[in-house]
Design a protein that fits this description.
The chain is an all-alpha fold. The protein has 5 helices and no strands.
Length: 138
């Protein structure tokens, strides 16, 4: 299968899994803390929740940030018909690194390890984009 749609969909599925994990952590923590849903109407209002609930929510938010660039880049490369082995490897590497970033953040949350995964994924994404720009504007 030589399509960038597969890694795109894999990261979408991962994001939805983290979304479920976030609510599995957040709802019981809110209940235990006596926080009503309306009490969460403003940013920062759930900062008193235990770390696991905050980490899952933070990671879900992270998956809504930089990966949007990945989605656009991967689909642009696919639509342009420039999908090759390198594009595939880079896309899957990006997805794997984002999964590692998530697993670190929702578990041990070691910032240096999390940053390393983020940095490597950012470099991978940058290489994907630069490669495509060279092809397009060479």
């Amino acid at each position: 299968m030589n399509t960038l749609v597969a890694p795109v969909m894999a990261l979408v599925a991962w994001s939805l899994l983290i979304w479920l994990w976030m609510y599995a952590q957040r709802l019981p923590a809110m209940s235990k803390a006596g926080i009503k849903p309306q009490d969460a109407a403003f940013p920062g209002s759930l900062n008193s929740l235990p770390a696991p609930a905050r980490q899952a929510a933070d990671n879900y938010n992270h998956l809504m940030e930089q990966p949007t660039i990945f989605y656009a880049a991967a689909l642009a490369i696919q639509v342009a018909g420039h999908t090759d082995g390198w594009a595939m490897h880079l896309a899957w590497a990006y997805v794997a690194l984002r999964v590692v970033h998530s697993l670190v953040q929702v578990s041990v949350n070691l910032v240096t390890l999390r940053f390393l995964a983020f940095l490597l994924s950012s470099i991978t994404l940058s290489v994907m984009v630069v490669r495509e720009l060279v092809v397009l504007f060479g």
